[in-house]
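User: Could you check the structure of this?
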Amino acid sequence: MKKIIHFLNHGLLYTVAVGIESVAPFVLAPILTHYLSVYAYGVWAIFQTSTAFLRPILGLTLDDYVRMHYYRQSPEKMVGYILSILILSGILAAVLCLVAVLFKSQISHFLHFPQEWLWAIVLCAWLYAMFYLFLAYYQLEARRIRFAIIHFVQAMITILASILLVMAGWGWMGAAIGKIIGLSCGAGLAWIWIALHFPKSAQRHIQLSHIADLILFGLRYLPTGMLVVVVILTDRLMLANMVSLEATSLFSVASLFPMVLFIGIQGLMFGWQPWCFSRLSRHRAEDMRELAMGAAVYLLAAPLGALALTYLSRWLGPYVIAKEFLPAMDYVYPLMMAMVAQGFYLFSQSILHYYRRLEALSCLALMVMGINIALNYILIARMGTIGSAWATFTAYSAGFVVTAAIAWHTLSRRYLMNFTTGSVNV
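Assistant: Sure, the predicted structure tokens are below.
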């Protein structure tokens, strides 16, 4: 039990760190909902979701590559991989900028977004990809203080710059520019700290084989890395096209409240992954009991936290958002349940991450995406905006059930049964 408490304390520190950055939407919500129209907030929501969608593409989801291979590579090789990721992501960002210029009218019409600001989506997404790449490195290096400082710097600069620009009359563009400024400062600080620990002539550690490995991993793993952002973008875009941009705006405002729960989920995940991976690598039977207890604590705490936050949100909502956005409160409860299902799904993925079941993870992600798209089409037509929230809940719930079954089968085959022969096949 002491070890479980240690794990929870470990996760709590990451929760605080993630919460520092994630508090930005809540601080900005009163400002944005009072200075922006419902339509303008919808444009801002499209900017955010489009940025989130492009982030794993520009980063090739290689922050998870760092997590999966950190314990299997020497520090010198990991340096080579990080530098290779920077080169690949920079090339991809340049290509996407060219695509945005060549097809700006078509992309603008599809996204319901001003074509002259498409460049901002690409730039913000690239900065986000680099920011989370560096965070993955700090997470596994156990540099938790620096992990927290980077989040704090990024969040505070984003909040201050966004508030000043929005109040100066820049509208949603001010919030976008503030986000870009904050990410630039956070990612820049993270890179400086990492570069200080690089060996001399670090570029010599870049090899063509590294780049080939990264591209192959990215192609195999991309559906998994894009799942969350695809679901978010699907919900917003289908609402914008099947209902209205104002419906997307209200849905996005309602999503702010479940983000409090996501802060806890993400923080616990940052603590859970290295804790889980280190125990799986030791191959001891008693470690399985610790993992089972840690999972049980999480699976009980998430739904209880969701119920408490739902009641808190209904009380706090009228004091935080402008009155024209108050209809969004009707969507908080189903979105909170969708966040619980998403957390269960992400949590159950950890075992498959450790054993690098890339194809299984990608197939599961494609399954969840397909269910979400189909149910959005059906439920929005029948239930309106709230149908999108229940579509997401159902899709993630189905993903969790299947993922948990595969994870248990993987553990039984690769870990538990091997104790009868005295060997372990990892």
